[in-house]
Amino acid sequence: MILSLITPFASVSKAAATVTETFDALDLSGSSYVDGSFNGVNDINWTYTGGRISNSDSSFNIDGNGIMFRDAGKGITSAPIEGGISSLSVDTKAAFTTTNPRLLEVYVNDELVGTTGNVLAGEGPSTFTFDNLDVEGPFTLEFKKVQSSSQIVLDNITWSSNDEDPTKVSAVQASIQSGQVLKGESVSFSTSTPDAEIYYTLNGGEETLYTDAIEINEDSEFEVYASADGLDDSEAATYTYSVVEASTISEARTQDTGSTVSTQGTVTAVFAQGGANNIYMQDEEAGIVVRSAAQPEPGDVINVLGILEDYNGLAQISAAQEDVTIAGQEEIPAAVEIPAEEGLTEALEGMLVEASNVAVESFASGNYNGIDENGNELVIRPVDPAITLDTGSTYESIAGVVGEFRGTYQIVPRTASDVVFDSNQVSIVQADPAGGFVASGDEIKLSTSTEGAEIYYTTDGSEPTTSSEQYSGGVEITEDTTVKAIAVKDGMTTSKTAEFSYIVQKDEIKIHDIQGADHYSVYEGLAVADVQGVVTYVVNRNSFYMQSLEPDEDSRTSEGILVYRPSHGMEVGNHVKASGTVMEYFVEGYSDRSQNDLPVTQVNASAVTKEADSVELPERVVIGGPDGVEVPTQVIDNDNLTAFEPEEDGIDFYESIEGMLVEVAEGTVSGPQKYGELAVITNRGDEVYSRAGGALLKEDDFNPERVTLDVDNENLIVKTGDELATPASGVMSYGFGKYKVLVGNGTAPTFTDGGLEPAAATIVPNDEELAVAAYNIENFSANTSATSNEKVTRIAESFITDLNSPDIIGLTEVQDSNGPTDDGTVSASESYQRLIDEIVRQGGPEYAYTEIAPEDKQDGGQPGGNIRNGFLYNPERVELTEGTAGSATEAVEYVDGELTLNPGRISPSEFVNTRKSLVAEFDFNGEEVIVIVNHFNSKGGDQPLFGQNQPPFLGSEAQRVELATMVNGFVQNIQEQTPDANVVVLGDMNDFEFSAPLEALKGEELTNLVEGVEKEKRYTYNYEGNAQVLDHILVSNNLKDRSQFDIVHINSDFMEAHGRASDHDPLLAQISLVNEVEPEPDPDPGEQEIINLSDYKDKRVMIFEDNVKIVADKKSKVKQLIIRGDNVTFSGKGFKEIDVTLHPRLPGSEYDFSGDKIKKVEIKHKNVSIVKGAEKIQKLEVKGGAKKADVQYFDSYGNEINPFIKKPGKPKRPKAA
Hints:
By secondary structure, the protein is mostly beta strands. The protein has 8 helices and 86 strands. Helix 5 crosses helix 6 and helix 7 runs parallel beside helix 8. InterPro entries: Endo/exonu/phosph_ase_sf, Endo/exonuclease/phosphatase, GH29D-like_dom. GO terms for molecular function: catalytic activity.
């Protein structure tokens, strides 16, 4: 694109030189958007805001490093640049996959000279040029992100610089910028001044006249300048090159990521994946993957030049097709036996290996998990879907190349012959051709490499047996056929079943033939010609959808298809013919989309011809309304994708209309708009929906009736319960794990307000009861650029107005004080104080806070944010009981009836890369309560509901179960020592009330208050239109009948424009810590029962009985005695060595120590009323809620005393009456 601009700058006439900023000197890492500066390749300083490196994913790189911006207003500015500027060009590219606008405003000397054109997801880089600038220097350049929050990459800023002095020769430019070059590569020098001569020195040597390109064979530094008669010499320029020499694969693997490498190896495997080839090659020492469009064959010896990359842990060389050359052919190297002791390691990555006697134990997410004969755990991941293993079986050998995905090494078999069940097994049947297109009447030939074996086959889809047709010659194919065959020989094991699919070539292939009644096309990988359709939706300049003008009668086969043809030039209504290769293409999604998502059927077109400019569009498939088709409302999939049932399975329903024109006629919005997408409910089942009419996630129903609209408008304001006022129309597509209607270039809907309002807590505050809240405040910090003042105001207001200022608030997603800025800060003191100050400003109580700061970058969450759990508490209502605060790595325990740390972290070493559970003990009106705030690991790693793996594998669940089990174990430990302890467990558990993690957390010890909420109100979060519970408050069972509970729906149904403060709804519980049902005191307790401590072998004993006399002689082994009962007398010489804790269950409890001296007594509860014989107590302490108790102390003779004031003399005996 060329933008011709009329600029306000004065015209100047200067000699010109071209300068390029490549960003290759930008030293950034990670995925955080940060502020900073760097010196560019031309020694110009650049300052950026809200930028991040763009080299971490080749899908949005341009070349080398670039800088990515997301937020409007962020950008990059140069320091003053000497010389003038006459023209400017920049390269930009869309990052990630949303279709929102991506634009940069361009400024020279703070004046706007233009805006780059929009760039679209999935396309290559675009270059935008700004001419006729003619600005005298020095000048500054600025590039500022505008409009949406979708990411854009900036690279290669090139300008023609006008030298201020027209009497001076323009600077010398090099054909290759400083950096790495391949040995033998040549560099050229030039100047824009006519008739100028160029002189150079090499590595400080003699000055030489430049005449021709110079071959570089060693590290070189050139100093160059240009000279011309009548002009001053140009400024000297320096270009430095480091030579890349051909290396072994092992040497190449050790280079830094991003380095240019050159190496040679023998190809062992080639897999087509994601629009390019993964080429495995190896030499005598090591192996590596080459990612390229080149197509060598196994056995080819190839030379490769490319960039070393790290793809999810896998070392690969990214190389252009022309940089992969064939040097010869060799025998494919023999597979290496996996070492017995080490198993699969980094040293074997990329190499061909073999494992023996592999027991296959399980299958999930495309991976087979097994153990070889040496006990090494193996992951086998076939790329070819025809390669399958049987779980529970042991294979004699499995060969393949070694890949890696996020730290897990994988054996990738190349063909079925790499998997040997039994060497005595007949070799599997081969076919010629092995599938694909055939003409009607063609014959296929079957064979096996096992001499003397007989072949039996079927053509009706059934499994072959020795009773099936015996192969004696060719098998004639007259219709689309699947041939299954086995080979049999006496004395040997029958071969595995081989399967071959054939498609009879038709005179005209139509879209429904390609789509078929399946999620994958039988035409995948095959060339098709002149497939006709009308263009229904233009995605971008490279892709469009078309739909057949002649549909079939089968509603299960889609009539629409995606066509990829760069710069196609087509418009909606064009009648076209497309020829090319059928692909199953992953249009958009996360990095693991090829392993988890479903693809979109696409024609990768080599040619598209227009047959007519404008024809009538096909009728839309109407969803919703009285005449619309109904979406299944209960089942997403119930057959592991083995049957195609659009009338029953939601995943099949959407596939049956993939690529077709769709109109969503009526519907209720099921969740707020996010990322330009929203879900609507068009038809309802019999199940319960949310209070606003949205989908409610349930144990047996994940709501396939949610229809996702991709409106491509992040500024659309819509909330749960709003209604479609006008239809939405577009095409049914797929991306990010779900089917969705592309509406952005279709007909956008309008909405009517459904009237939903935020709902404050319904619990009536009671001063005698404890109010506890749980609130995920979504990456909250004191950094005003990351946490806006509006958000702080809303959260503070919600505490006061919606939650009625709870006594204790368990907070999750509190960040350190500078938020996502990654500079080692871990303290969150300013973050808490910012929130506390705002609560006070709005008239709320002045809360205190307690937390434990994590170690830097150890608790997951937003990079640099150091997310953690914490508490706010109202010191006018509750007190944090005495104790020493723990550190980030110390583990709290519950010992002798109290926390060893307060607050403390539960098993921090076990909570790897996730938030640690924080426990604290509080005192409320003399009653102790232990509160545990949690934020378990996210559901990232769970497979999508509408993905290729059915049922989805919940990869993140196991860790949550483990964490929940640890927290439940901590509660068990509390209750073993203090059975009636008041315990509250709350926070963002990142899972549902019916899930395995919540069952593990609840156990037999806790009650989940969420389960008592009406179903239509049972949700705290909305994900893709599914209202669901992620946040919970659980209480110890002794509190379940004394607790009121409410989910306060103020956030999850709404957008920020509606006043939303977080993406989670807060929860509120009001709990009576006093059991109002108390047993009637026995007016005549009778004679005390004797309990002799010599009968106990443990050093720590807890006594629950009332009306007892406890005797301890000198032989007693008990060292600590915890008393929960009432009317207890203590006697015996052994008490001189025993610590006694009084923690009674009942108010008005009395204790008598008038017998013998006692080492120590600790009063821990306000239920203690009378202590007799207090002078016999050597050490007396009052802790916790007992401090608020009105305890009366008497000596052994009945005189009331103050045992904390030591007085001389013996106590007085009372006079006889």
